[in-house]
Inverse folding.
């Protein structure tokens, strides 16, 4: 893109009479280069622009105003061109530096944000199982999202939502969460409230955590509309549809107080059967492809 803009600027420079005006156009590829690639590329783009204009000015004596009849450019004309080139290169260097600083600052903030989320899951969890459950769900959800072709910033949001998806269980007692016997209907209803309770906890927080709120609020919705909020299909945020598959897969493949863990193949079959009913078929398809290609492995070091 940068190259094609440079070529376009050169072509305009060659064809249009008001060359001084066209010189301003070279700032565009330089600024875009600074914004996308940083200081080094921006400076190189500016140097290339200056070189290009220099060659054009040398080969076409109509290019700069008041060129002498002999085709030689007077010193004053070259001085103008030199000043313009120096300003362009300086601008490129400054813009590139500022952009790189900004990028580093954002990267630092992202690192801090993810570090805080990882620490937070320890407080959200009431025991090692829940803590590791959140982490594993975040790994599975990120793998499915990557398989579905999501951009990395969206995958970051899905990972964060998955890490905090059960934050509402903070308000559910430990005895109730790990009760081995059958739950009464009021107990089931209370546990079922952990989605809105999670929403209440995160509601005052802004920024990326506010973005992931809809995913947390809907992570137990069913694709066919039979969930608590009766959201159906596309009405359920896609992040929530992804977390739903990751959440159920992890629950099935973990030991629970009331049953032993299933094998990953048994869990996969249950998820495949739920496609179009409990789960989004597109998410299930991505889950299956990821299972077939890499398996749903979670790095041991974090567990
Ligand atoms: Fe949940
Ligand atoms: Fe969960």
């Amino acid at each position: 893109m940068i190259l094609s803009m440079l070529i376009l600027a050169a072509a305009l420079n060659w064809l249009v009479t008001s060359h001084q005006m066209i010189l301003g156009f070279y700032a565009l590829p330089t600024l875009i280069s600074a914004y996308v690639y940083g200081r080094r590329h921006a400076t190189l783009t500016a140097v290339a622009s200056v070189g290009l204009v220099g060659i054009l000015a040398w080969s076409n004596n109509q290019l700069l105003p008041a060129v002498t009849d002999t085709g030689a450019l007077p010193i004053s004309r070259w001085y103008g061109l030199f000043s313009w080139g120096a300003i362009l290169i300086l601008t490129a260097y400054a813009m590139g530096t500022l952009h790189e600083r900004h990028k580093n600052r954002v990267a630092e903030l992202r690192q801090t944000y993810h570090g805080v989320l990882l620490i937070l899951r320890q407080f959200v969890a009431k025991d090692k199982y829940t803590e590791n459950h959140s982490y594993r769900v975040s790994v599975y959800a990120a793998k499915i999202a990557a398989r579905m072709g999501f951009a990395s910033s969206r995958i970051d949001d899905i990972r964060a939502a998955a890490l905090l998806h059960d934050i509402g269980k903070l308000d559910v007692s430990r005895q109730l969460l790990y009760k081995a016997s059958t739950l009464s209907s009021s107990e089931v209803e209370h546990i079922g409230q952990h989605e809105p309770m999670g929403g209440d906890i995160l509601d005052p927080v802004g920024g990326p955590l506010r973005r992931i709120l809809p995913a947390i609020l809907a992570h137990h919705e069913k694709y066919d509309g039979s969930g608590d909020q009766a959201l159906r299909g596309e009405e359920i945020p896609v992040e929530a549809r992804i977390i739903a598959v990751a959440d159920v897969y992890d629950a099935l493949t973990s030991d629970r107080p009331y049953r032993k863990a299933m094998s990953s193949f048994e869990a996969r079959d249950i998820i495949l059967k739920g496609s179009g009913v409990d789960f989004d078929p597109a998410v299930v398809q991505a889950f299956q492809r990821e299972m077939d290609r890499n398996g749903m492995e979670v790095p041991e070091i974090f567990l």
Q: What stands out?
A: Residues 133, 137, 165-166, 247 surround fe (ii) ion (ligand 2) (CB under 6 Å).
